[in-house]
Amino acid sequence: MKDLGALKYLLGIEVAMLKIGIFLSQRKYVTDLLTKIGMIGYIAYVVSVVSQFMHSPNVSHRNAIDWIFIYLKSATGKGLMFSKKGNLDVVGYTDIDWAGSITDRRSTSGYFTFVGGNLVTWRSKK
């Protein structure tokens, strides 16, 4: 077995070991994505709305996607900080709206999970 040194990058996530804790970021992944689409230079809701029109998009949907990438470009330095002194409590929330959509009477459900006060997973489904 070979020692590869301190962990710096894993599954698209940059790992920085600091004196005060561990910092996780997807800066490189987002930068690579923006480079790939030629754009190097509250998103969850916008993404969920735009994704409903994947099979028949129009110009307004393309404009919304452009704004999503602009947001991602401005947020590349953000990440999760897990403090050495903090706790790693896992807290989850969920909600459902049964047949609450006026247009199609479909239900909407969602959940999100925090670890040590950091949002680590979420999902919204209609």
Automatic annotation (TrEMBL):
Top-rank taxon: Eukaryota
Protein known as: Mitochondrial protein
Organism per entry: Prunus dulcis (Almond)
